[in-house]
Amino acid sequence: MNEYILTLENITKEYPGVTALNNINISFEKGKTHGLVGENGAGKSTLIKLLTGAIDNTTGTIFYKGEELKQNSPIKSLDRKIIPVYQELNMIPTLSICDNIFYGHEMTKGVALDKKHMREKTSELLKQVGLKITPETKVKELGIGNQQLIEIAKALIKDVEVLILDEPTTSLTDVEKENLFSIIKDFKKRGISIIYISHRLDEVLQLSDTITVLRNGEVIDTKPAYERNEEELIKSMVGRNLSRSARSEENIIKKEKVLELKNVSTHKIKEVSFHLLEGEILGVAGLMGSGRTELAEAIFGIDQKISGEVFINQALKNIHSPKDAVDENIAFITEDRKSLGLMLDLSVLENVTYASLEGVTKKGIINKDEERQVVKEILEKLNVKYASLDEKVVNLSGGNQQKIVIAKWLLTNASILIFDEPTRGIDIGSKEEIYGILRDLAKEGKAIILISSENEEIMNITDRVLIMSNGRIASEYKSEELTADTLFKDSARLL
Predict the structure, then answer these.
(1) DSSP for residue 42
(2) What is the pLDDT of residues 71-102, one digit of tens each?
(3) In what order do the strands lie in the sheet with 472-478?
(4) Which CB contacts under 8 angstroms, 24+ apart, belong to 20-27?
């Protein structure tokens, strides 16, 4: 008889205008590895946040060891020995391995720290995860792969019972991966339950006893791993070949190259070459950490170029800062609109004009009437819903906030527009309006780079698609030639 350590019954998680999880039913067996797969946006991250107490479910029940979890929290989750190891590492680089492992729950002897026992325990944990380094080693001296194994060692100090691994092999070498796989198999023998989340389907099939597929916030199916193969998993994850929009039929006659990168490298991207045409929507796809946003930051002068050449309107340019990029009529609509794209406590008017005040300024004085008229016109064009120009942006919906960011950059008269996840976190109606704005801008001759983790979005409104992996361009397709399974496979390639 199967013994389940965690069970989710009829779990739904709703946000305003969005259902992130819909009627989820999954049981995780004690001492087994349960693979969790799905495209970006399928609901995996939301599910993990529920299990670790970071968020609460709207409806449904979670059972742990047969008892209902009520008023869960990250602290309570840790007390129950449900430990997540995220793709984004959570350590203090300047501290030693020992200090990182025991940070927040140090051993004591009387009123003093018991450093001897902490070092001994750290040595034991390092041996368990296959690392032959000393507890005193500073974390900043380690490679990313070893840091990932230190995160797992941190979980072991808490006598973990459910270990959640989120994309654990992204930064590991082949040798480090094999070591991790051995550790996972050893954990299972010790009765530890593993929830394994990865886009690397070969790993999921190799390690898992059971695999659940999520799509659009719903469980598509749960089957034993031996009944599955990579092709069948992709079909379950994708569901269908995504429909084509009318974008390919709207294509205007392409003109000159407005942007070209030749063998550009930064500390985060490697030998990237591509071009962008006037009136074109160029999609950039790839998994988290593939280098999509880093590519945008390189173009916009946030990350400094180490080598390679950048041409704008076929003229060689040196862009060292965002100001240089703006001067070359490049705009960057960031994915983090709340922190980087907007000043939430300022008004609609102030947010729209602060990147282009010189356009409504004469001899250092802002023409208030002209400023308000220009803003009204651009907001009407974008169909932004707001009470008044003096209303604080924080009071607007997510979709309207995103339109404010777009309006700000359109007022700069930018000819090259980089959109990074422009529809993240907004409702379907606002999404369709954003898509319409992108198409209209392309018709006007604007050149657009669209970075998105939503495959349907990438495939439906672009002309061409670049697929990135490990900081490089893995492949390029005309959008009408690209299928969802090809997009997924190319994104998961190791370069």
Answers:
(1) S
(2) 788 888 888 889 888 876 778 888 899 998 88
(3) 330-333, 416-420, 447-451, 281-286, 464-469, 472-478
(4) 20/46, 20/217, 21/46, 21/47, 21/50, 21/57, 21/217, 21/218, 22/216, 22/217, 22/218, 23/60, 23/218, 24/60, 24/218, 24/219, 25/219, 26/212, 26/219, 26/222, 27/2
CA atoms of 89 and 178, how far apart (whole Å): 20
Q: For residue 163, what pLDDT is reported?
A: 93
pLDDT exceeds 60 at position 362: no
Asked if 107 and 83 count as a contact pair (C-beta separation under 8 A), the reply is no
Strand partners, 282: 449, 464
Compute the distance between CA of residue 477 and CA of residue 487 in angstroms, rounded to an integer: 9
Residue 445 near residue 279 (C-beta atoms within 8 A): yes
Reading the block at residue 127, the tokens are: 């041996």
| Burial class for 405, CB neighbours closer than 10 Å (0-12, 13-18, 19+) | buried
Cα angle, residue 187 at apex, residues 186 and 189 outer, rounded to 5°: 65
Give the pair of three-digit tokens for residue 183.
Answer: 């550790």
E strands present in 192-286: 193-197, 210-215, 218-224, 257-265, 272-277, 281-286
Give me the residue label for tokens 């980087």. Answer: 340
Residue pair 274/308 in contact by the 8 Å Cβ criterion: no
Domains of the chain: 4-238 (3.40.50.300), 247-491 (3.40.50.300)
Euclidean distance between CA atoms 26 and 6, whole angstroms: 8
Helices (H), 59-165: 74-79, 97-101, 115-128, 144-156
Share above pLDDT 90 across residues of the chain, in percent, rounded to a whole number? 35
Its pTM stands at: 0.58
432 or 27: which carries more pLDDT confidence? 27
pLDDT in tens, 392-405: 888 887 778 888 88
CA 243 to chain centre: 24
Average pLDDT along the chain:
85
pLDDT number for residue 367: 62
